[in-house]
Amino acid sequence: MFKRGGYAEGFWERLGFQRALPPVAVGKKRLWLHAVSVGEVQSVGQLLRRLHQVGGWEVVLTCTTSTAFQVAKQNFGAYTIAIRPFPIDFWPSSVAAWRAIRPDVVALTDTELWPEHLTQAHKRRVPVVLINGRISDRSFRRYSHFRTVSKWLMGHLRLILTATEQDYSRFITLGADPQITHRVGNIKFDVAINGMLDEQAREQLRSELGFQAISEQNRPLVVLGSSTWPGEEALLIEIVDKAREAGLDARLLLVPRHMERRDEIIPYLEQGDHPWHLRSQAVQAPHSVIIYVGDTTGELRRLSYAADLVFIGKSIPPNEGGQTPIEAAA
């Protein structure tokens, strides 16, 4: 986050200097919902819409990364009373933010168990719900070394809704109460896929990227690097180079996991002979482009429609785990 400049926007709010919200409206409850990054923000979209539909809730949505903050403001302002950066988990900052927001319920996503945040909830007797609870291999190993701390964290949760059977087992192993821990599935798979492109719109998108077909029989093969991590862009460029040497009209659409990494990617592009283009400079690319970099926020889902073949980022060592394949599968 610090390296990518993720704390620049809303810096003072992250320190706890947040505008106090008005008292909760009569007959309503206030939910403080926290989603870390873009994937988590998009995954809670259906929940936000449902809460707005049923009424009775005022939702304050907080995010950790700058890109998630932008996506939240672009898409979910109508379903919330405030969208803010999440405060640093340090006593003065957390206390100040709690005094400004004054929630009745707190909901966390994945494994965002911040000790000071949970402590403030406990002091105020505010129930904390963990939705889409997940524990990665790395996190499980780390938590397993500190069982006392893990059990303390789990003890501050009123309800735990896990994404998978494995996550359920891991939470129980780390000290979660089986009576409040339930398997409900991964809400990321409940994301609504709106605005699907028909064939004509898909061709217009490919033309926008500079990948238009010369004829029906002469269409480029578009390879998408979806949410790529360091080292993966160079590999994909090499693959496209070899495909073109073999006679295929292969094109590469790169969408890095963090748009701030464009400066790391540009040297790879400059070393090659292929024309390239950055979406942040202009949406429309020249027709001669071979490599198009989607270095913008919140557009992966739409850009995925241009691809014939998709590589899911964070899949090549030393990276591990893989980013979500939902956009590609849709």
Write the layout of secondary structure elements.
Layout: H1 11-14, E1 29-35, H2 38-43, H3 45-54, E2 57-63, H4 66-75, E3 82-85, H5 91-101, E4 105-109, H6 115-123, E5 128-133, H7 137-144, H8 147-154, E6 159-162, H9 165-173, E7 181-183, H10 199-208, E8 221-228, H11 232-245, E9 250-256, H12 262-271, E10 276-278, E11 291-293, H13 300-303, E12 309-312, H14 326-329
Parallel strand pairs: 1-2, 1-4, 2-3, 4-5, 5-6, 6-7, 8-9, 8-12, 9-11, 10-11
Query: From the coordinates shown, what is the CATH architecture of the largest domain?
Result: 3-Layer(aba) Sandwich
Helix and strand succession?
HEHHEHEHEHEHHEHEHEHEHEEHEH
Number of helices: 14
Largest sheet: 7 strands, parallel
The CATH topology label of the largest domain is Rossmann fold
Shape: elongated
- Overall number of domains: 2
Please write the CATH class name of the largest domain. Answer: Alpha Beta
**Order of adjacent strands in the largest pleated sheet:** 3-2-1-4-5-6-7
DSSP strand count: 12
Percentage of β-strand residues: 15-25%
Question: First CA to last CA: what distance?
Answer: 29 Å
What is the H level of CATH, i.e. the homologous superfamily of the largest domain? 3-Deoxy-D-manno-octulosonic-acid transferase, N-terminal domain
